[in-house]
Amino acid sequence: MEKIVMRPIGYVKNDVENKKDVSWGDDASVIELQEEFYSGLAGLEDFSHATIIFYLDKAVYEKEKHLQRHPQNRDDMPLVGIFSQRGKDRPNKIGIISVKILSVSEKSLVVKGLDAINGTAVLDIKPYYPVYDKKDASVPEWVDRLMEHYF
Description:
Strand content: 25-35%
Order of helices and strands: EEEHEEEEEH
Distance between the termini: 37 Å
Number of strands: 8
Largest sheet: 6 strands, antiparallel, barrel
Oligomer: single chain
Radius of gyration: 16 Å
Number of helices: 2
Strand order of the largest sheet: 1-2-7-6-3-8
């Protein structure tokens, strides 16, 4: 199998020190870029949202435990495969989420709703485009119940 190598473009700074499953909407995070990428933020201030791709370094994937499970290990959720949920313990430690942009500076991006802990490596930042990131998507009914207290 081909080995894929990536390097962080920056790191998350926030007050979240441990993995959690709820209340991410209360957290603002600063994404501090590596100096070589500072100018890559130009123009992002014109967008309301961005998609952040990050490395889940504290995730631990165990096939027997995570390939199929109840989301957030809740018994009131259906048993579904890992690719039908956004759980953090995944075959590849990649996190992705669209967040609200609070501010953009010369060296950093401040966002709300980033479900990453302090020190998490950021792999990429993309502007949120409604044409790509469809607003009219549908999800199973259990997703709404699961997300009641996430943000």
